[in-house]
Amino acid sequence: MDACLDLVVPMKRLDRAKSRLRGAVPGGSGRHVELALALLLDTVTAARAADGVRSVLVVCEDERVPVALRGTGVDVVDERGLPGLNEALAFGARLLGEDGHVGALQADLPALRPVELAAAIAQAGGARAFCPDKEGTGTTLLLAGIGEALDPRFGPGSAAAHAGTGAVAVGVGTPGLRCDVDTAEDLEAACQLGVGDRTAALVCASAQSSPG
Ligand SMILES: Nc1nc2c(ncn2[C@@H]2O[C@H](COP(=O)(O)OP(=O)(O)OP(=O)(O)O)[C@@H](O)[C@H]2O)c(=O)[nH]1
Ligand SMILES: C=C(OP(=O)(O)O)C(=O)O
């Protein structure tokens, strides 16, 4: 498949991100920041490796994020004070150029496998599409139709909101793509699936294998 999809990945300032995960890794606020970064790094590493993905752009105003992503081939842009998630995503998508093919991927998918993302992109076939999270209410991936604006509707009930904009559900059989990590229980579920190296080093038993 030609790699033509450009993905935007949103990330809050690290001190404020993933608040429901606070304490999931013992060791205080430094460890919490490490965990948020590990989730992001494992997600974008898998995304970069997926067939069909041309580029990944993280939208984040935290200066530690470009440092952590140095050498990964992932770009970072500061959202410059935009007021929220959907505004940050729309900003990133416009930078990527919406006359091409753009999408949004959540930043907390440590069990994502490149083949899962590639399969969801292929299933969409260039049409507007979304992947529901494992509960079926949220969204882990939104794909604009080719040549269309992203029009993100993330937030509570985003799966229904995206379906309401004409997006078709894709990737329903891809557990790693659907396993976003908001709580300690989600982190445990991701570890059961097998997480990437950075998250595994922080939270999972050393015997755990990482996704391929
Ligand atoms: N760049 C950017 N990213 C955002 C913003 N708001 C949320 N995000 C990111 O969007 C994703 C989904 O947001 P949430 O579900 O609220 O996640 P979170 O805020 O990190 O976690 P909680 O504090 O537990 O709600 C996460 O990766 C966030 O870091 C924003 O204003 N700007
Ligand atoms: C913002 C969303 O995700 P989360 O589950 O991380 O709140 C969403 O699913 O639209």
Automatic annotation (TrEMBL):
EC number(s) reported in the record: 2.7.7.105
Under the heading InterPro entries, the entry gives:
CofC, Nucleotide-diphossugar_trans
- What does the record give as its pathway? Cofactor biosynthesis; coenzyme F420 biosynthesis
Question: For this chain's UniProt record, which GO biological process terms are given?
Answer: F420-0 metabolic process
Spans through the membrane: none
The enzyme class is transferase
Q: Which reaction does it catalyse?
A: phosphoenolpyruvate + GTP + H(+) = enolpyruvoyl-2-diphospho-5'-guanosine + diphosphate
Q: Does the keyword GTP-binding apply?
A: yes
Q: Where does phosphoenolpyruvate bind?
A: T139, G155, S158
Which Gene Ontology molecular function entries are recorded, alphabetically? GTP binding; phospholactate guanylyltransferase activity
- Which keywords has UniProt assigned to this entry? GTP-binding, Nucleotide-binding, Nucleotidyltransferase, Transferase
> What does this protein do, in the record's words?
Guanylyltransferase that catalyzes the activation of phosphoenolpyruvate (PEP) as enolpyruvoyl-2-diphospho-5'-guanosine, via the condensation of PEP with GTP. It is involved in the biosynthesis of coenzyme F420, a hydride carrier cofactor.
* Recorded family membership: Belongs to the CofC family.
Q: What is this protein called?
A: Phosphoenolpyruvate guanylyltransferase
